[in-house]
C-alpha cells in the first residue's frame, strides 16, 4: 500500500512516516500544500493523509481539487480543530475520515487499515487491467490476453507501477523509489536490467514494446505496443 502524507510539522511527519513504514506501508512525505496537491493529483496512492493547515494550500483545498478531478483516493484529514463545524467542513469537502491531534498511534493505524479496506471497495484493487494485461493481486498472477505470464516479484511490482502510470514518463529515480524503496541499497543498472527482463516477458514477438525508453529521462508504458 502506498500512502501520501502531507504534513508541515516536520517532526510529526518524520515520526508518522517511520510508524507507517514499520507497518509495511510505502510512504511519500510532502510539507507544502501545493507540492502535496501536485503529488495527489498526478501520482497513484492507496490512501492520502492530509493536515488541514498547510503552507501555500490548505488540506481542504487539496481535497476539493482532488474530488473536482474525480480522484476518489480515500483521504484521512489530520487537524488540531475538533469542533463539529470543523468536521462537517472536512467531510463535506470529501474526506473519508477525520482525526484530531494529538492522537494515539494505534488509532491512526486502525483508521488507515479501515481506509485500506475502503480502497478495495472503491477501486477494485483485487485486480488491475491495462491493454492486454491483467494483474491479480490476490493470487499475484499476470496474464496477457488471458495467457499466463511468469514474473518475479520485482517484475510484478514494476509492471504494476507502469500500469498505474500508463502514458506517464517515469524517471529511473521514481522507479527505484517506488519498486525498491527510498532506503534500498541498489547497485549498478538495476532499473535498466529489470526493464529489459520485463520487456522480454511481456512483449509479443511480432510487435514492438509496451515500454518505451525516453532517452535521458526514463520509461513510459503504453497499453498498446509502440514502434
From TrEMBL:
Start and end residues of each Response regulatory domain: 2-116
OmpR/PhoB-type domain: residues covered: 125-223
Residues that bear 4-aspartylphosphate: 51
Native species: Alicyclobacillus fastidiosus
Keywords: DNA-binding, Phosphoprotein, Transcription, Transcription regulation, Two-component regulatory system
Ranges annotated as spanning the membrane: none
SMART domains registered for this protein in UniProt: REC, Trans_reg_C
Residue spans binding DNA: 125-223
Listed InterPro entries: CheY-like_superfamily, OmpR/PhoB-type_DNA-bd, Sig_transdc_resp-reg_C-effctor, Sig_transdc_resp-reg_receiver, WalR-like, WH-like_DNA-bd_sf
Protein name, as recorded: Response regulator transcription factor
